[in-house]
Design brief:
Elements lengths: L1 E2 L5 E3 H4 L5 E10 L10 E10 L5 E3 L5 E2 L34 E3 L13 E6 L9 E8 L2 H4 L6 E10 L5 E6 L9 E10 L2 E11 L3 H7 L8
Parallel strand pairs: 1-11
Antiparallel strand pairs: 2-13, 3-8, 3-10, 4-5, 4-6, 4-9, 7-8, 9-12, 10-11, 12-13
Length: 221
């Protein structure tokens, strides 16, 4: 396993040349006593294509995947399935190509292990997708006066889905004392190979602001 620091990269195609299905697991613990309210952290992904300045831009509104995405998995066997396993379940948020599946909303972050998971199947991934940007936001952060300075033990981990082998882990050890959102990493293509970069950049913005920043739109009605 490779331990990544901010800005670090791993070539997944070289580290796991036979793998096509990857698990991007995210975990955290939150201090509910800081504000008197539970934390609800949400993982979202933006499926992007690079523009002329090599900046990632959301391909379309359907390429924004979060726990309440309209497109859902219908048949587990067409997405990610291990014999004897019930994962992922039917009805999970997904991209149209079924190359990206979201595990769903964990509203507490309690317990050990991954709290939310993004599955990526590179064989099903739409060829138009250059980058999958992974963002974590705090639901109702301003209302509850919460920020990532009150969250501990945060990490993102990349594994082979079929074998369970952990390829890389990035512990978010930066001091996000005021930020309400963090772009934790990017899963992307480079010269026909799949890479992952530990980004670790904090922002004071909500999920809707990220949608706009990536070139999408938010229905304010």
């Amino acid at each position: 396993m490779i331990n990544l620091s901010k800005g670090g990269r791993i070539n997944l195609s070289k580290e796991a040349p036979s793998a096509s299905k990857f698990r991007i697991g995210l975990g955290w613990d939150a201090n509910a006593t800081d504000t008197g309210n539970d934390f609800d952290l949400d993982v979202s992904v933006f499926l992007c294509k690079y523009d002329s300045q090599n900046s990632p831009k959301l391909i379309s509104q359907k390429h924004f995947i979060f726990y309440n995405t309209e497109i859902r998995t219908l048949d587990r066997e067409t997405t990610f399935y291990q014999p004897g396993d019930d994962w992922p379940r039917k009805g999970m948020s997904a991209s149209e190509c079924l190359g990206v599946v979201h595990s769903g909303d964990n509203q507490t972050g309690s317990g050990n292990g991954d709290d939310e998971v993004i599955f990526v199947d590179t064989k099903k991934l739409d060829a138009a997708i250059d980058e999958i940007s992974v963002v974590v936001t705090i639901d109702r952060a301003e209302e509850r006066k919460q920020n990532f300075g009150q969250v501990r033990n945060s990490y993102i981990e990349i594994s082979e889905e079929e074998t369970g082998r952990v390829l890389a882990r990035y512990p978010l050890e930066e001091d996000f004392s005021m930020e309400t959102a963090v772009q934790v990493g990017s899963f992307y293509r480079r010269d026909g190979q799949f890479m992952f970069k530990a980004v670790g950049i904090g922002y004071n913005r909500g999920l809707g602001d990220f949608v706009i920043a990536y070139g999408g739109h938010v229905d304010r009605a």
